[in-house]
Amino acid sequence: MINITLDSNIYDLISASAGTKHNIKALVCAKKICICAPEHVVHELKKSPFNGLPDWFPIAETKDSVFVAGVTPWGNGTLGSGPVYDKHLGESKKYDDAIIADTANLTSEILVTNDGRFKRRLAKASNDCKALDFIEFEAFLESLIKA
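Above: the chain sequence. Below: its structure as tokens.
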């Protein structure tokens, strides 16, 4: 089974694509993939029009791998920072992306994001988690469906 983390910006694109929704659900039900949702992504989606995780397919919620005071909601995450968090954050103040990147590195083989900067930083910071954009993700899903 391949664990996949979806960045919050991907849910909008999935909502507009019935074919992608169908493929994800079929692959999750066939136990070929597992969609993982770090607490930080769930928190971001609660502030979106989705008002939380959509129910299009089963999603496994995961704890954030780091806790950042003033950023991470109390009770979420693990105290401290992970190696990918530190590398991904660098000189930036994009704590949210660094938290999601570190958590995806621990829980998933693939992270899907349409944020090019996020994707490039994860590629440099992690050898364990590959970043795909939405178009690459759709092609990946199609290859699994055909396999």
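The chain has one domain: 2-142.
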